[in-house]
């Protein structure tokens, strides 16, 4: 018997600095505030204590409150001073966190060989990486599982059967912890090489996501399971079943990647829908490229269905299990790489390293949400081999919502238009040894917001008769991010 033990300990240290208060911590006193500190207001009049009431001294018995304002809703009374950054220092806008994890820890056992052409069957058990399709559209993660895999017919057929008992992720590093998420994922897929043309591989895939009811707060103190959106907010079960047809390869000089998923199932209590919903949603992706000497020209399309009736009992917005796609520019794309909060709510408009607009609290700690707007993405790009060691990636994408009714309903508005904006990106990858032992990557991505994106984040956009609503809130006309990384593999 042949076996292999794989261990990958990981230590993560990250430092974050932002420009606004309240982003890094739900505690208004800032990141790292102590639980015995009573809030952001302090009594400076000497006529009473702020303790004994609500945080900050507002509540019955708190001194210095304005007359007729027992709850402190009108603001602090005489003698109260606002305690700002000069008292609490940088904890408002900075955060330093570290985390250690045994990210991969699996035993692989070679069970048998069937032919002289090395048709085999093997098994892996433990924390292991797994990508359910060619581009990571639905499930691409490292987690605790059992996987049986192998091939047949001189490697023309490959197969996987896997089961995962999902572990909770650390909020800041997204590394695995030892805590269970009470979520169970089962995957079976089969690949066929040279399916209808030499060089093209087809795949059939089936995935089951059994996400049990749970209550979970992330490390910042936010409730992420169940998601705080709509009502009633209560733990709920999700049973989702994915049927996928995928393909990847080349037909002559043309390269083709295609994917289609249908998901059905049940959510026992969707907060936005206000009750149980039946899941029926779709996703499709297509990338066609052509190689001309040292340049590859690409055109891509991605679609995730949306829900046009959020309270209708049918959840038709597509969501993933835990995706990490390499599409429309991959890590260089601003839209793909960044996560967007959803207005002034406790969920995200889009998750980090994802393509779908799903109104989900967190893809690593929260539950899928199939009542969402969906998305259309149209893209063009090119990959250029400038040198044997240096590649250049350029991509441009246009993003729009498939449906806006869910966004209108969640934000109590009626002025959301579908256009999200233009996503522009460029990046380089340098491999000085012509191998993957050292990889240097750097990229710049930008989003030019369109009216639909701006309407989500603007304030006072619709005047109310009889009230002075003031001007709308400002949304930057150009959002950007840059990164650089070095990866060593030995």
Spell the H/E element sequence.
EEEHEEEEEEEEEEEEEHEEEEEHEEHE
Can you tell me the number of structural domains? Answer: 1
- Beta fraction: over 45%
Report the major sheet.
Answer: 17 strands, mixed
User: Between the first and last Cα atoms, what is the distance in angstroms?
Assistant: 26 Å
What share of the residues lie within helices? under 10%
CATH architecture: Beta Barrel
Shape: globular
* Global Rg: 25 Å
Give the tally of β-strands. Answer: 24
How would you state the average pLDDT, rounded?
A: 86
Poorly predicted runs are 34-88
Secondary structure tally, helices: 4
Structural class: mainly beta
- CATH top-level class: Mainly Beta
CATH topology (fold) name: Porin
Task: Briefly characterize the structure.
This protein is mainly β. Helices cover 4% and strands 50% of the residues.
Please specify the SSE layout and strand pairing.
Blueprint: E1 2-17, E2 41-43, E3 80-82, H1 85-88, E4 94-113, E5 120-131, E6 140-152, E7 157-169, E8 176-192, E9 200-211, E10 216-217, E11 223-225, E12 238-251, E13 254-270, E14 275-292, E15 295-304, E16 314-315, H2 334-337, E17 340-341, E18 348-350, E19 357-360, E20 375-387, E21 390-401, H3 405-411, E22 419-430, E23 438-449, H4 451-457, E24 479-488
Parallel strand pairs: 14-16
Antiparallel strand pairs: 1-4, 2-3, 4-5, 5-6, 6-7, 7-8, 8-9, 9-12, 10-11, 12-13, 13-14, 14-15, 15-20, 17-18, 18-19, 20-21, 21-22, 22-23, 23-24
């Amino acid at each position: 018997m042949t076996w292999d033990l794989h261990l990958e300990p990981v230590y993560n240290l990250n430092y974050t600095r932002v420009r606004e208060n309240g982003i890094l911590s739900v505690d208004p006193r800032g990141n790292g505030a102590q639980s015995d500190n009573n809030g952001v207001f302090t009594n400076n009049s000497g006529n009473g204590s702020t303790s004994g009431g609500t945080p900050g001294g507002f509540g019955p018995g708190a001194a210095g409150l304005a007359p007729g304002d027992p709850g402190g809703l009108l603001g602090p009374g005489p003698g109260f001073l606002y305690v700002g950054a000069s008292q609490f220092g940088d904890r408002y806008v900075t955060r330093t966190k570290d985390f250690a994890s045994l990210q991969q820890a699996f035993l692989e056992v070679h069970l048998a060989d069937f032919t002289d052409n090395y048709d085999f069957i093997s098994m892996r058990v433990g924390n292991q990486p797994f990508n359910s399709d060619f581009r990571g559209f639905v499930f691409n993660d490292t987690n605790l599982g059992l996987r049986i895999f192998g091939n047949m017919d001189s490697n023309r057929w490959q197969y996987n059967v896997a089961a995962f008992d999902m572990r909770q992720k650390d909020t800041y590093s997204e590394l695995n912890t030892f805590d269970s998420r009470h979520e169970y994922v089962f995957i079976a897929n089969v690949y066929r090489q040279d399916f209808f043309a030499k060089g093209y591989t087809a795949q059939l895939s089936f995935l089951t996501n059994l996400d049990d009811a749970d209550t979970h707060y992330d490390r910042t103190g936010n409730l992420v399971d169940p998601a705080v959106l709509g009502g009633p907010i209560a733990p709920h079960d999700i049973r989702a079943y994915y049927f996928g047809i995928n393909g990847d390869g080349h037909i002559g000089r043309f390269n083709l990647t295609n994917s289609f998923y249908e998901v059905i199932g049940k959510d026992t209590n969707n907060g936005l829908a206000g009750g149980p919903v039946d899941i029926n949603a779709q996703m499709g992706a297509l990338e066609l490229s052509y190689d001309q000497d040292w340049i590859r020209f690409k055109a891509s399309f991605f679609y995730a269905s949306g829900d046009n009736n959020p309270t209708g009992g049918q959840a038709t917005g597509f969501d993933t299990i835990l995706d990490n796609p390499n599409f429309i520019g991959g890590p260089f794309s601003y839209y793909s790489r960044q996560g967007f909060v959803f207005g002034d709510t406790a969920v995200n408009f889009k998750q980090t390293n994802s393509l779908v607009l799903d109104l989900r609290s967190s893809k690593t700690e929260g539950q899928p949400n199939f009542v969402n707007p969906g998305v259309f993405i149209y893209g063009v790009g090119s990959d250029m081999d400038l040198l044997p060691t240096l590649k250049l990636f350029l991509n441009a994408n246009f993003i729009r919502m498939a449906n806006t009714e869910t966004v209108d309903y969640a934000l109590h508005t009626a002025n959301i238009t579908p256009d999200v904006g233009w996503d522009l990106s460029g990046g380089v990858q340098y491999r000085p040894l012509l191998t993957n032992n050292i990889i240097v990557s750097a990229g710049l991505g930008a989003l030019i917001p369109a009216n639909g994106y701006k309407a989500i984040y603007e304030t006072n956009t619709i005047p109310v008769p009889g009230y002075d609503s003031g001007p709308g809130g400002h949304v930057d006309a150009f959002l950007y991010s840059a990164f650089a990384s070095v990866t060593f593999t030995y």
